[in-house]
Amino acid sequence: YHSYGMGWQYRATDVAAAFCRAQLMKLDYLLEGTRKLAGIVLEGLKDVKGLIAPVEPEGRQHNWYNVVYRVDPKAIGYTGNRRDLRDAVVAALNAEGVQAGMWQRWILPAMTVFQAKNGFGRGSPWAGYGARDVSYDVDQFPEAQRHVDTYFILHGNRPPNTEDAMHQLVAAVRKVMDNVREIDVDKFIAQRNAAKK
Hints:
Layout: H1 14-24, H2 27-44, E1 51-52, E2 67-71, H3 82-95, E3 100-101, H4 112-115, H5 142-150, E4 151-154, H6 163-178, H7 185-196
Helix pairs in contact: 2-6, 3-5
């Protein structure tokens, strides 16, 4: 997603609120099932070279709505464009039947709304009373850029999926990462670019 402007939409209907309230009664049960399935993935992929696993800080409990990994180009000896490598790995995962993808390909400072400093029109909130000059130079955010360039989401770790499905997911990810050096990133990029034309 790329944001060209700012906006909020807080309008929820009574029906949506009633549905949410009913779902919240099942929250503990749903979180328990999700954590169990995510735990199978985390355990099964904990020693995979070339993957940086998500971390659950001590004293905190992740909801594991998504399991987010990052590709580590250095660990596999890849020196090319890290985003191209990640995209090729995700394509290979999808070819193996793993639902993997990215939610966000832009760091916030790179988005037009911040680069143009025109969130609400006429320069607001960066122009006018109380405004201050803020720099959104993307070079100031190298860690955010590195994360966006290397992360991917493994989908499907929520009920009604099963433990067997998670073991299959782990096997497919391991297969791709065990053979990651065989992925021809340049060929993948050329094919992707040709498909866009």
